[in-house]
Amino acid sequence: MEITEKLNIPAPFFYRKIIDSVLFDIRKHTGKSLTKNQLDQFEYVKNFSKNSRAKIKVEKIVENSSYHFRTSTTKNDFKVQYDIIPIDDQSCEIRYQEKMESFGILQKLNDAVLGIILGYFKKRQFKQMLKNIEKSY
């Protein structure tokens, strides 16, 4: 899935919102209070439920420009990229990309079917999240 959206907020504001969310998630799941300077290549385990967990690794972080991470489970590998392109001092373009690699034939089939069904709703939800960040400025 790829989404490109222009937002009427400065690039540093959007970047800070994303990074604050990441730092909160890390603190919630590890108890560690990191700074944004400690995020590059940081890995942690996130428990979603009693039987579901994933390893999350920050793969790339460039101040006010990009945040990329990977979520790995026994069933799939999910890569997400946020790239932030400043347009001017009060607006930016967000390029969001996610790719998923599933392991096993049944898992690939299941993920393909769900991807088709849920893709539209996921895009809509993501665009709404972007609009909410824009409104919070």
Word description of this protein:
With 137 residues, the chain is of the alpha+beta class. The chain has 2 helices and 6 strands, in the order βαβββββα. It has helices at 11-30, 105-135; strands at 2-7, 43-49, 52-62, 66-72, 76-88, 91-102. A 6-stranded antiparallel beta sheet has the order 1-6-5-4-3-2, with helices on one face. Strand 2 and strand 3 (52-62) form a beta hairpin. It is globular and about 50 Å long. It starts with a strand and ends with a helix. The model has no long low-confidence stretch (mean pLDDT 92).
Features:
6 strands; 137 residues; Alpha-D-Glucose-1,6-Bisphosphate, Chain A, domain 4; 41% strand; 2 helices; alpha+beta; 6-stranded antiparallel beta sheet
Structural class: alpha+beta
Secondary-structure element series: EHEEEEEH
Distance between the termini: 26 Å
Q: State the CATH superfamily name.
A: START domain
Under CATH, the topology can be stated as Alpha-D-Glucose-1,6-Bisphosphate, Chain A, domain 4
Main sheet? 6 strands, antiparallel
Enumerate the spans where pLDDT stays under 50 for 5 or more consecutive residues: none
Record the strand order, biggest sheet.
1-6-5-4-3-2
The percentage of residues in β strands lies in: 35-45%
CATH class: Alpha Beta
Rg computed from alpha carbons, rounded to a whole number of angstroms: 16 Å
Mean of pLDDT: 92
Overall, the morphology is globular
